[in-house]
Amino acid sequence: NAGVMQNPRHLVRRRGQEARLRCSPMKGHSHVYWYRQLPEEGLKFMVYLQKENIIDESGMPKERFSAEFPKEGPSILRIQQVVRGDSAAYFCASSPAGKGTEAFFGQGTRLTVV
Amino acid sequence: GESVGLHLPTLSVQEGDNSIINCAYSNSASDYFIWYKQESGKGPQFIIDIRSNMDKRQGQRVTVLLNKTVKHLSLQIAATQPGDSAVYFCAENYQAGTALIFGKGTTLSVSS
């Protein structure tokens, strides 16, 4: 049973470009969570999704950031017009429905904006 | 705002010593707490959890203590090994169906 898969592991974007981060949950998990980790910081909650529905996006910046979890395929975190301050590690976790305490994390995508 | 925090950003111990990592939380309504270990370049890895109706839980070489009176959580690692070197985070869950909220982390360094 593969764990949570995130890709790419490393992503370099120039300022103004778009970044797309992908997360495939563990088999049998229908809920996905995205977190951002700045250097020397803890994980900050961004968004919580189930298939075709956003449950909680209270941690998402109001502009440039969006997330989706379609019926088929991975969850996507999209950052438009990236800025240097977006450079961070982005982690995805997945859990069974309604069991956020049983979340397993992926290895993260490290975004560098140059 | 309410958040989970840790007392010390770093902790250095000798191999074989016992380590204690502390965490203070502010949301008295939280019903579930988890300790995670994060090694360099990797995602957080579950260590041990505890529910709010408990005050102690033991695992293999690790013990989590919960003091709800002072809103304090600690992780004890027995006979610390170099492989325990990592950043440790506590996380809380306000209620079922919500996402985990993390503290800033303590970096544990174990020297031989």
Please characterize this protein's 3D structure.
The complex is a heterodimer of chains A (about 110) and B (about 110). In chain A, about 0% of the residues lie in helices and about 50% in strands. In chain A, strand 9 and strand 10 form a beta hairpin. Chain A is globular. In chain A, the strands form 2 sheets. In chain A, strands 2, 4, 5, 6, 9, 10 and 11 form a 7-stranded mixed sheet that branches. A 4-stranded antiparallel sheet of chain A has the order 1-3-8-7, with no helix packed on it. Chain A starts with a strand and ends with a strand. Chain A has no helices and 11 strands. By secondary structure, chain A is mainly beta. Chain B has about 110 residues and is mainly beta. Chain B contains no helices and 11 strands. In chain B, the strands form 2 sheets. In chain B, strands 2, 4, 5, 9, 10 and 11 form a 6-stranded mixed sheet that branches. In chain B, strand 7 and strand 8 form a beta hairpin. Chain B starts with a strand and ends with a strand. The chains are: A mainly beta (about 110), B mainly beta (about 110). The interface between A and B is medium-sized, with 23 and 23 residues.
List keywords for this structure.
heterodimer; A: 114 residues; mainly beta; seven-stranded mixed β-sheet; four-stranded antiparallel β-sheet; 11 strands; 0% helix; B: 112 residues; five-stranded antiparallel β-sheet; globular
List the helices and strands and how they pair.
The complex is a heterodimer of chains A (114) and B (112).
Chain A: E1 5-7, E2 10-13, E3 19-24, E4 31-37, E5 43-50, E6 53-56, E7 65-68, E8 75-79, E9 88-95, E10 104-105, E11 109-113
Parallel strand pairs in A: 2-11
Antiparallel strand pairs in A: 1-3, 3-8, 4-5, 4-9, 5-6, 7-8, 9-10, 9-11
Chain B: E1 4-6, E2 10-14, E3 19-25, E4 32-38, E5 45-51, E6 56-58, E7 62-67, E8 72-77, E9 86-93, E10 101-102, E11 106-111
